[in-house]
Structures are given as structure tokens and as C-alpha cells.
Write a structure and sequence with these properties.
By secondary structure, this protein is mostly helical. Helix content is 75%, strand content 0%. It has four helices and no strands. The chain is elongated. The mean pLDDT is 79.
Length: 73
Amino acid sequence: MLIFVAIVGAFICARSRSAGGAIAFALLALVLFIATPVGQGLPAAIGTFLDVVDDAATPALTDREPDEAGAGG
């Protein structure tokens, strides 16, 4: 219920063009969601996603093959 109230608060602040309040309510909702058993896997999922993006972007940014990028040379 608290997550729903925080989302509604963020929506109301966004509609009244109060960016700071909307961000605060959205962060509160995110923290409350991560505190639930369903949301506990979210940080690991985000970390995995960012690792995949990093692995995919490294060859394009360094102009090396993926196996050479981690060789340190």
C-alpha cells in the first residue's frame, strides 16, 4: 500500500510540475519495492544487464576483439 501511495504522490507532483517532489516520491517507491521479497532481485538484475551492455559495448569502443579486451594488454 505504501508503494502505491508513493507512486500516486510522484504522479501528483509530476502533474503539478514539481520535479523535486516527483523524484523524491519515485525514489521512495523504488526503495520500498526493493525492500519487498519480489524486489530483492532487482539490484542483481540491473547489475547483470549493465554487465551485458558493457560486454557488448567494449569491442565497439576499443576496436578490439572481446577476448583481447580483458587481456590487459
